[in-house]
Amino acid sequence: MKKTNLMLERPSFKLSLIALGISSFISNGVQAEDDLNLETVRVIGQAVQIDKALTEQRNSNSIESVVHADGIGQLPDDNAAEALQRLPGVSVANDQGEGRFVTVRGLAPELNAVTINGTNVPSPESDTRAVALDVLPSELVQSLSVVKTLTPDMDANSLGGTINVRSLSAFDHDGLFYTLSTEGSFDDNTDQISPKGSGAVSNIFSIGDGVDNFGVAAALSWQKRDFGSDNVETGGAWDFDGSQPRLEELEQRDYEISRERLGLGVNFDYKADVNTSYYLRTLFSRFTDTETRNAAGIEFADPLLPNESGDDAEGFRELKDREETQEIQSYVFGGEKTIGLWKIDGQIGYSRASEDTPGHLAGAKFVGDFDNVSYSGTSKPRLNAGSDYYDPASFELDEVEWEEQKTTDTEKNIKIDLARDFDIQGYASQLKFGGKLSRREKDNEVDAWAFEDFGTNDTSLAAYSAGNVDYSLNRYGQGISSSALERLIGRLDKAGNVDAEESQINDFVMNEDINAAYVMNTLDLDDWTIIAGLRYEGTEFKAKGTGIRDGNFEAISSKNSYHNWLPGLHLRYYLDDKTQVRAAWTNSVVRPTFEALAPGFAIDGDEASFGNPDLDPMTSKNLDLGIEHYMGRAGAVSAYVFYKDISDFVYNTDLGGTGMFTDFDQAETFDNGDTAKVYGLELAYTQKLSWLPAPWNGLLLGANATFSQSDAEIEGLGQKRDIDLPGQSNQVANLMVGWENDKLSMRLSANYKSSYLSEVAGIDDKEHDQYVDSQLFLDFSTSYFVTKNAQITLEAKNLTDEEYYVYTGSSAYNAQYEEYGPSIKLGFTLTNF
């Protein structure tokens, strides 16, 4: 069978015939509607979001999951990270109760890539490649997608998935569109109310000889949120040598946090003629995080059992107070032109991410000696101490650390794609090839001072106290005044107290140049779509930094290069008009984190810590197989199995006692593991039950779950042991129950992820591996249209008051416990479209 009208019933890369048919259908449909004088029905809400997302997913050449803004330009959550966690196989790593970093199919955030409008996004933080997506307000985003199988024309730098962010375009709406929103949120933990305001506007203009050929879209969002959390942690300081684990130290922390977000995007689209178009996409995001952390802790002279009293313990009070500002800028200029059977796409991208932390109290520590202290409980330990522990006069200032830091990460790239349509024996085919040049530079600069001699100044905590700390997990006592400590530093000799080691070994400049080229062919063969191709990526890496060896500084420079040939094959088979089977064999390459590649080192006697610029990248062979069935309005069910064979995965380790570190008690660094395997099953279902009688016809159901398993092996000290791949959750699941009509919309959603390995201890110290415990979040949101253009929204998050818990070896033994409390938001939106 050759090409038939089936082309009109299923997605294909050959779009010209489809576009012609749709255009004719729309024209005829509009005329018929005018003739019958029918009322136009607005299409907004949850079902519209789901429907648009499923359409993109269905038409994609890759296995892809999508979340889409609705007709009034709103994603279903406050930031990009939290919107993505509703997708199959996707979960979010939280920071202070807010969704930030995205995991895909249980794999850690640094194993995934993020692009904005087609260009890679660098990370503002010094140690990671992962991009914290909470810096992107939802108002700036038109759609988000997670591509889980890469075609050869895509960057191959993701293992779990590539997260694509597409910002608002004027051509997403007909004519003038605008929306204005205001919101207030209440944080239960701090009793603080926080404001938010946002807006978006777009319009289409006629310039030159064209008609509706120039579009301008802009979006602005601002939010300031005041909140906090209460924490108790041991850092994993458990002694497992005896018959019962004993605790060496614990710490109570109180966080007061203020986060301010500002996002701005301005986009331009120009259709020069039917064959030529250009675009400019710009995005600016600023995220300012102000954090004051009071800590009260104890170090026992000898490790203690629960409720066992100990003498001669050192108590401490600490303060950290800093403000850091992260910025992300992205500018993408591109265009496409059709010349006969050829199509040419070109794009120039520039992205810059930075994190600026001006001079701040990196740590101020007061100490004192105490007797008859103990603790109760092991998962959420409570400190038990006498009244002297809560007397500020019992503590004396031991050290003050002052620090400032600036990190920048810049990426410049240019790419070009050429495609030509042709036919093979009457079957539609397309040859596509192209290349990309990417230049990335990441630099980090730290300046630090350490003060220990305070002269004749009063060093009692009583002189620097700031009133009682609002701490819910236990008795705490008084906090520390940052302003009083800053006045003290102002009286000290700053130039004579430079911390030369801290200031130099953390400074680095890293350059990563990637040259890529690819060729691929797409063929429609009866009920099959076949994509086969090959991608090449060559990487040149350079790093410069400083190390310290027994008090002497050494300049370090390192180079590394590698070349990866990455074949890929994608198959899609149409069982019928609503059902398709997909299969993919792909290859990817993920480069180590910047923390792992850092050139700096510190060697002091028989102890060492250092990065490893000579690490190999992680490579993976990936197999995916699944089926998708689409049914009615906002309806689809899918099932996928996946398998990843990973080589050279990176992990932290201790090389002390081995090789060139034979005489070292400790040599902490990063190394390449041999192989790891990840395999799993991904299930998804969504549907609007529109066939039910009213009011049940407004019901929407959605559920997805990913079940995965990883196996990895590490070695050192002449030993080997099996571990899970760090950051990989075995189960990730979402459940959504919604209901809507033309005025009211409600949604109750649950998000679950199982525990995962977060930090690997020594090769011979499995008991001190650290795990993040499972989490279940429950959120509720509702919106009501007061008029056709005015909407009220209410959202309640973390209704289950879910905590963040990290344990050591066994879930009974605390490494970190943190509570945030629920939050409630009330908003108002005015829209014209």
TrEMBL record:
Residues 368-799 form the TonB-dependent receptor-like beta-barrel domain. PROSITE patterns: TONB_DEPENDENT_REC_3. Gene3D superfamilies: TonB-dependent receptor, beta-barrel domain (2.40.170.20), TonB-dependent receptor, plug domain (2.170.130.10). It comes from the Bacteria. The keyword Magnesium does not apply. Residues 57-162 form the TonB-dependent receptor plug domain. InterPro entries: Beta-barrel_TonB, Beta-barrel_TonB_sf, Plug_dom, Plug_dom_sf, TonB-dep_rcpt-like, TonB_rcpt_bac. This is TonB-dependent receptor. It comes from Methylophaga marina.
